[in-house]
Amino acid sequence: MPESLAPNIPPPAPLPLRTTPAVETPASGRSRVIIETVSPQVDAGRFPIKRTVGERVRVEADAFVDGHDKISVAIRHRPAGGAAPWREAEMAPLVNDRWAGEFEIHTPGWQEFAVIAWVDHFATWRYDLQKRLAAGQDIQIDLRIGADLVTDAADECDGEVAASLRASARLLRSDSTAEATEIAISQSLQLLMRQHGPRRFVSESVPLRIWVDRVRARFSAWYELFPRSATSQPNHHGTLADVERRLQYISQMGFDVLYLPPIHPIGRAFRKGRNNTATAEPGDTGSPWAIGGPEGGHDAIHPDLGTIDDFDQLILSANHLGIEIAMDLAFQCSPDHPYVKNHPQWFKHRPDGSIQYAENPPKKYQDIYPFDFECDDWQSLWNELLRVTLHWVEHGVRIFRVDNPHTKPFPFWEWLISQVKQREPDVLFLAEAFTRPKVMYRLAKLGFTQSYTYFAWRNEPWAIRQYYTELTTPPVVDFFRPNAWPNTPDILTDYLQTDARAAYIVRAVLAATLCANFGIYGPVFELMDGRAVRPGSEEYLDSEKYQIRKWDLNQPNSLADLLSRLNRIRKSNPALQQDRGLTFHRSDNQTVVVYSKTQGDSVILVAVNTDPYHTQWANLNLDLAAMGIDPGEPFQAHDLLTEARYRWQGYHATVGLDPGSTPVHVFAIRRRSRSEADFEYFL
Amino acid sequence: MPESLAPNIPPPAPLPLRTTPAVETPASGRSRVIIETVSPQVDAGRFPIKRTVGERVRVEADAFVDGHDKISVAIRHRPAGGAAPWREAEMAPLVNDRWAGEFEIHTPGWQEFAVIAWVDHFATWRYDLQKRLAAGQDIQIDLRIGADLVTDAADECDGEVAASLRASARLLRSDSTAEATEIAISQSLQLLMRQHGPRRFVSESVPLRIWVDRVRARFSAWYELFPRSATSQPNHHGTLADVERRLQYISQMGFDVLYLPPIHPIGRAFRKGRNNTATAEPGDTGSPWAIGGPEGGHDAIHPDLGTIDDFDQLILSANHLGIEIAMDLAFQCSPDHPYVKNHPQWFKHRPDGSIQYAENPPKKYQDIYPFDFECDDWQSLWNELLRVTLHWVEHGVRIFRVDNPHTKPFPFWEWLISQVKQREPDVLFLAEAFTRPKVMYRLAKLGFTQSYTYFAWRNEPWAIRQYYTELTTPPVVDFFRPNAWPNTPDILTDYLQTDARAAYIVRAVLAATLCANFGIYGPVFELMDGRAVRPGSEEYLDSEKYQIRKWDLNQPNSLADLLSRLNRIRKSNPALQQDRGLTFHRSDNQTVVVYSKTQGDSVILVAVNTDPYHTQWANLNLDLAAMGIDPGEPFQAHDLLTEARYRWQGYHATVGLDPGSTPVHVFAIRRRSRSEADFEYFL
User: Fold this and answer.
1) CB contact under 8 A, A409 and B66
2) pLDDT for position B347
3) For A97, which of B201, B407, B436 is closest by C-beta distance?
4) Chain A with chain B: Cβ pairs closer than 8 A
5) Do A616 and A552 fall within a single domain?
């Protein structure tokens, strides 16, 4: 087995307790403090929690000791790997033996943390002394006990600290009880002992890990297009150069990730025709997901799209505009893929000698050969797929959209993603798995950065509320980053099979504001082409999956301006740049969904009429506490789409949402305290 | 460090996957099935779940694989230690990728179990074949694929199974498609392949442990008395022989555990007087918890109580009546304890050279020296306390009531209990920790068999409902066994400081029916002596903790008969012999609490008026489903205390509970289906 290929990623070995100055080697029989139920954690530490650079990690734990002694509790954290020094963040008690603390993370990659705790004999002594003083007891011997504690601490310190501790110990032994008492209960001595007092028999929790991504993992706006349709020239197969020319259009709408379906050579055998017909006519271009032909496989570029130099140029131009190119990783082959000839052992063979094509009986997909991940030569298969991935990483790709990851083994993905991130921690992976919830969650746990969701089918307010509450609270929010798409080339929902502009506005606003990552498949979305191939189907008519389409981007009713505005609102409001902080508010109209997102002073309140055909009125009962608003103070609701401003006060508000004009409100909520001048000006 | 003394009990090392016939050594890269969220478990397997001999263990797990393949899932279990062969129980799918199965445990001690799962290629093939047949597809090649799968299985079997599989494979290759199809979808071949088909690339969950106790751990009735008060002879210090004479009385009330406060020599120095006065008068007997005098320490018997031979005789006589003697383990010393002279290093010393007595400032307990578990000689201290415990085990003690375990280190208890159970798995430990919830739960997790609870202070129906719901559902029910006591020598609650007989009946019935373990401290309880030492105190006046009391057991208003009846009801109704199966029912009177317990056909419904002074009526809304009752069928409610029988039907019932006559109902609920004759007779 090559050195790079370990067949599975075991959870890291438990970290031994590191000795830092003033921490003795623990003898566990005397490590009396118990630490339990540390949060956040995913599957008892089997998987990391996920955060991005600059976020704060709030840690909680139960910690307690036998008897009445006082304890000190802290978080230890550092970049994983063992070389960096531990940093420490103090934890403070909440209620019921629960403690909390937090720290900020600055470096992408693996971080490790644990909760540590120890009996604080000085704090115990000081607390007891105060009770003795209050009861008027004699404290002569107690002062001597305290002096001994402080002297012990001094013996383990150097320099000024030791000198200062020794001075305190002398005062505690003073003949003047008043003087000794004063130093005994002084804040300064308490602080000194907290920082420099000996820590004996330290307990440490199970070590936990954090995977820290760059910020785009948390906050991104995706646009998908088919490169071969990226031109309006008649009779022309769009090229990567055409995509480059379209970057300005995408940038103006505010998207920062451009995802391209596979750009590799396409197979001939069993090629699908237009609208997914079984046989292709001459000139039919086939599905880009039938990867591989005589021109090459997963590391080649379709000759009609251009060359690797064109691709490198596209990456450069995109990056110049702040856009990243996301590449499709679809690990399957057309019958014409070079692997079929060169590595037949990677495929399953039928008794008649043919290679097993993809099936979901009774359906047959004869243009696709899946890999046999149970084959004896699985290790070389894994290595080749890693090589292909790294090939594109070397060409500057930092985001992959992975096609159907749930049809390849979970251990494979855990290994591949870890191998890539080990080399380039800024590479992101989006899981395209529209399948059962536990399967989707497992993919997120094992390393996928973001995941497609059921968003497209959550149209009712109750369903939105239920689903997004699950996605934005622990444990899910700690490992799963939803990326909401109103449509994809495979998903034209019933809700969008309409010419009602409001339907598209509603879905765009929900996608862009419920969670911090969203995307659309265009230009079909902004041009609102809602024609299905047949009634009851979610497939587009004349789908770009099987043919080239030409689009008139200048159509006057295009949603491009709305998308621009939405993306500007997202970029200027931190509340919309994270998945946490989502609260649903009560509405007496079951077709109107109302929610807020809060991040510090940034508060956004969204009201959406999910009925795209009729005006709906709703009386709202606002959760003011969730928005940090005092019920006794007026506040401003500033509609960032229409620029209308309202002065509200208290829990009750009424909205009227007309699909013909304003089917949604996206309010910035401004409290008096935040920006007094701006607030007063408009009231 | 002596060999017997490991300073901590680490969780057992992960169990390697054992190969059993037809299971290949797993190559984890091809072990595609994922197993998650196995239940029951306690703190991710750090601690065992608890069960008793004869119980069934229901296991659930999430299990799923990439793609569309069918999987098989099973539980593997065996006595821990590695020598016994694995037994297997099949798991069946529920919904949403969750699987369930169960098995019964027969042996006390450690058991280990895990969930295993693998891709079932034959089941996948059979399922697909049926879909192909339904679609009318050609299945010639599929039949050959199936024949290959069956031949592969045959190659790994011997004898008749191999022959049978080979015969099936031949039929699958038959020229007659009809014949081949018939065998392909036959139940018999499916069963054969399920049992003998190869299991490749098996996945295994994290291994989990069960601690299996004997039945009394789950179901027991405790009676506590002070041996020195166990006689009515005037001017006589009760003896172990007096206790022996009282066994018949205890047995007639139906108790099966007799718990004795410490029977060791009592210290003289700082001995407490009657009613906990600071100085003892001549003749005062002191507190039995001030252990140790010139006559000996924790392994000695107070000379006034008798000899070790008397103790052995008491154990024998008790066992003869089905009663076990529970001994007190109070690990603390009087200043006169031999340890103080012989092992001064086990105690904390003050700067003036004196030994540190127990304190909770400003309170001082100068008659008690606690051990210093942080002392350098902690290992010999641990070993000595283990020796003392085993000394009593050798004298036949199988139940210990541990005094204030929360004031000694948790690692010590985990080690001590494990050391004792390793030698004698039938030894039980009751934790007397009335402290914060997480501390109490930790003690239960680390090995205590049963635990005292907050029961004494849960008098309101809402509080009873909340607390007992927590105690009888996972995760708590899997590691914490509540033992409910209406009173103890330290706890005379405000509720019982009354001469209202109903108050005592209410508390006895609640204790005896809410959970399966309960106890009383008598004879003060059955004689209803509710006098507190002073208003606002929970201490008894003339407490037996500090003096000898004489009791007239023949008082006409004694509750002994009620307790007899309650214990008989408990013994004949399995529903009351376990903590699971508790359901609270709705009552429109907030002073009346109503709950049922169900175990198979055994159903008990209890209604309690918690107001001991006034009659209360309540309209009930019964959860019939929880009692297995069809709303359309009549059922019988048979009051086991009064022998009254009611015919009820539907959700609604009314009870009137008069403190003067019937403050409670304890109904056996009989469904028509269960005992037709008995049911009809009374309707």
Assistant:
1) yes
2) 98
3) B436
4) 150
5) no
Looking at residue B136, its pLDDT comes to 95
Chain B positions touching A129 (Cβ under 8 A) are 361
Indicate whether A85 and A207 sit together in one domain: yes
E strands present in B414-572: 428-432, 450-452, 482-484, 517-521
Q: With CA atoms as reference, report the closest residue to B259 among B298, B219, B314, B313.
A: B314
Binary contact (B200, A374; C-beta < 8 A):
yes
Confidence (pLDDT) at B27: 53
Q: What is the pLDDT of residues B385-396, one digit of tens each?
A: 999 999 999 999
Q: How far is A208 from chain B (nearest CA, A)?
A: 14
Name the strands in the sheet holding B582-587, side by side, starting at the edge strand that comes first in the sequence: B645-649, B634-639, B664-671, B602-609, B592-599, B582-587, B616-621, B652-657
In terms of residue numbers, what domain contains B617? 582-682
Using an 8 Å CB-CB cutoff, list chain A residues near B359. 128
* Cβ burial, residue B146 (10 Å; 0-12/13-18/19+): buried
Is A193 inside any structural domain? no
Catalytic positions of B, written as ranges? 403, 432
A327 and A366, same domain (yes or no): yes
Domain assignment present for residue A130? The answer is no
Q: Residue B18: what pLDDT?
A: 27
What CATH number is attached to the domain comprising A643? 2.60.40.1180
Last residue of a domain, one of A185, A212, A239: A212
Is pLDDT above 50 for B213?
Answer: yes
User: Chain A closest CA to B428's CA: distance in Å?
Assistant: 21
Residues A537 and A591 in one domain: no
Q: Under DSSP, is residue A227 helix (H, G, I), strand (E, B) or coil?
A: helix
Chain A CB contacts of B38 under 8 Å are none
pLDDT of residue B122 exceeding 80: yes
In the predicted model, what is the mean pLDDT of residues A627-656? 95
Could you read off the pLDDT of A243-282 as tens digits, one per residue?
999 999 999 999 999 999 999 999 999 999 999 999 999 9
Q: How confident is the model at residue A677 (pLDDT cuts 50, 70, 90)?
A: low
Strands (E) located in B358-490: 358-360, 363-365, 369-370, 399-403, 428-432, 450-452, 482-484
- Res. A321: pLDDT tops 50: yes
Going by pLDDT thresholds of 50, 70 and 90, the confidence category of residue A650 is very high
ipTM for the whole complex: 0.93
What are the residue numbers of the active site of A? Answer: 403, 432
Do A495 and A593 lie in one domain? The reply is no
If you write DSSP's letter for every residue of A366-418 in order, what string do you get? TT-B---TTSTTHHHHHHHHHHHHHHHHHTT--EEEEE-GGGS-HHHHHHHHH
Nearest-neighbour CA in chain A from B595: distance (Å): 29
- Domain annotation covers residue B156: no
In terms of C-beta density within 10 A (0-12 exposed, 13-18 middle, 19 or more buried), how is residue B44 classed?
Answer: middle
Least confident interval from A501-515, B16-30, B135-149: B16-30
Residue A590 and residue A537 share a domain: no
Burial of A311 (0-12, 13-18, 19+ CB in 10 A): buried
In a domain, B301, yes or no: yes
Instruction: Answer yes or no: do A29 and B412 touch at CB < 8 A.
Output: yes
Q: How far apart are CA A599 and CA B61, in angstroms?
A: 37
Region A398-425: what's the mean pLDDT?
A: 96
Same domain membership, residue A380 and residue A287: yes
- Domain count within chain B: 3
Start-to-end C-alpha separation, chain A: 71
Residues in B touching A32 (Cβ below 8 Å): 373-374, 409-411
Please give the radius of gyration of chain B, using alpha carbons only, rounded to the nearest integer: 31
pLDDT at B328 over 80: yes
Please indicate, yes or no, whether residues A64 and A14 belong to a single structural domain of this protein. Answer: yes
Q: How far apart are CA B417 and CA B450, in angstroms?
A: 13
3-state secondary structure of A583: strand
Whether the pLDDT of residue B681 is over 70: the answer is no
